Amino acid sequence: MMIKKYIGSTTHEAIEKMKRELGMDAVILNTRTVKQKGMFGIFKKPLVEITAAYEMDNKSSNRRSDMEDIKKISSELADLKGMVEKISYNIHQKEEKIDPNLKEYWIKLVENGVQDTVATSIFSKLSQQVDLSIKDSISIRNIVKRVLVEYIGESDPLKVKDGGQKIVFFVGPTGVGKTTTLAKIAAQMVLRKEYDIGLITSDTYRIAAVEQLRIYSEILNIPLEVIYNEEDMYKALVHLKEKDLIFVDTTGKNHKEVDKEDELFKMINSIKNKEIYLVLSSTTDFVTLKSILNRYSFIDNYKIIFTKIDEAERLGNILNIKYLTNKPISYVTTGQNVPDDIKIMNSDEIVGSLLGEI
Ligand SMILES: Nc1nc2c(ncn2[C@@H]2O[C@H](COP(=O)(O)OP(=O)(O)OP(=O)(O)O)[C@@H](O)[C@H]2O)c(=O)[nH]1
Ligand SMILES: [Mg+2]
C-alpha cells in the first residue's frame, strides 16, 4: 500500500485531485487543515490536506474484478444447484410413480441411457399386468429381463430364400460405418461360402469412397459395379443377375438434407426384393437419432444396424430407438476390423448390459 497527500483550498478540491491521479480506488486515511506557508500565511484561509492510501499496479482494481468474477461464479453455481435440484426432484417424482419392486431396474435403465419416459412406460405396463408383490426378487429380475428382451425384439438378420435374390441397401448419416459394415457382412458370407455376392456403389461423391469398396471387392474376389444414376442401376442389376445377394453402398447424408425426392430414394423405391439397412452410430445422442429417424420415416420397411458399440458409453439408445420405431435391430458392430467386428444383435446381451450385468 502507498500513501500520498493532496492539498486543496477545500476538502472537495483535494479529493478531486486525488481521484484524478489515483482513480476511485484510493482510500482517504486522514483529513486535516494546514496553514499556508509564507509571511502572510497566517492571515490566509487554511488549506485542506488529505492523506490517501492506494495500491500499486492496479491491484485494487484487479481485486475488484476478482470479486466480480467470484460473485458471477457463485450466482452461476446457485443457478446450477437449482437446476440439479429440479432435475433430481423431477427424477425422484418420476421414480415415485414406479412400482417399488421395479425401482432398482428403472434406475439402472435410466443410468444406462434409456429415456425415463421409455423406462416408465415399459414398467407401468408391466405392473398393470403382473402382480409383482407376490413374487420373490429372483423371479422379478427374470420377469424384467424377459420383458426387456421382448421389447428389444428379434434381430431378423439377412437371409435369402432358396433360389431367390435380395438387393440390400445401406443408407444413413455420414461416417457411421455404412461401407465398413457392408464389407463385414459381405466378407463373412463370402468366407462361409453361403451366398454368391455382388457389390454396387452409388457413392461416387468421393473418389476415396469407390476405392474403399473396390479394395474389398478385390480381396473378396466379388464383382463391383459403380453407378452414377438410376439407369446405371438397372444395367448393374443385369450384370449381377445371377447373384443371391447384391449389396448397395450409398453416400452418407446429413440427415437434415435427406429428401424422399432424391434420385437415390426414388431408385430404392423402384426395386423389389430389397432390404434397407439404416445404419446408425451408437455414439449419436438420442435427440439427434430421433431427428434422423424422422427424416428417414418415409421409408416404411427398414431394419437398423447400430455401429460403434465399442465406442459408446451406454447402450440405452438401442432400447429407445426400438421403442420409437419398432423396426428390427439386426446387427451391432463392435470395432473397425473387417470382417470380425460385427454381431447379429443379441437381445439377452443388450438387456444384460442395460441392467449392468455385463
Ligand atoms: N470403433 C468403431 N469404428 C468403426 C466401426 N464401424 C466403422 N468404424 C469406423 O468408422 C469410420 C467410418 O466408416 P465408413 O464405413 O467409411 O463409414 P460410412 O458410413 O461409409 O462413411 P461415409 O460413406 O463417408 O458416409 C472408419 O474409420 C471405420 O473404421 C465400429 O463398429 N467401431
Ligand atoms: Mg461409405
Key terms for this structure?
single chain, 358 residues, alpha/beta, Rossmann fold, 3 domains, 12 helices, 11 strands, 18% strand, binds guanosine-5'-triphosphate, binds magnesium ion
Q: How would you describe this structure to a colleague?
A:
- By secondary structure, this protein is an alpha/beta fold.
- It has three domains: 2-54, no CATH class; 97-152, no CATH class; 166-354, P-loop containing nucleotide triphosphate hydrolases (Rossmann fold, 3-Layer(aba) Sandwich).
- Helix content is 46%, strand content 18%.
- It has twelve helices and eleven strands.
- The strands form two sheets. An eight-stranded mixed β-sheet has the order 6-5-7-4-8-9-10-11, sandwiched between helices.
- The two termini are 64 Å apart.
- 30% of the residues are buried.
- The structure holds guanosine-5'-triphosphate and magnesium ion.
- Residues 174-180, 203, 209, 252, 307-308, 310-311, 333-336, 341 line the site of guanosine-5'-triphosphate (GTP).
- Guanosine-5'-triphosphate binds at residues 174-180, 203, 209, 252, 307-308, 310-311, 333-336, 341.
Helix/strand-derived category reads alpha/beta
Order of helices and strands: EHEEHHHHEHEHEHEHEHEHEEH
Give the helix level as a range of percent. Answer: 40-55%
Largest sheet: 8 strands, mixed
Q: Compute the number of structural domains.
A: 3
The rough form would be described as elongated
Q: List bound small molecules.
A: guanosine-5'-triphosphate, magnesium ion
What proportion strand?
A: 15-25%
CATH superfamily of the largest domain: P-loop containing nucleotide triphosphate hydrolases
CATH structural class of the largest domain: Alpha Beta
Q: What is the distance, rounded to the nearest whole angstrom, between the alpha carbons of the first and last residues?
A: 64 Å
CATH topology (level 3) name of the largest domain: Rossmann fold
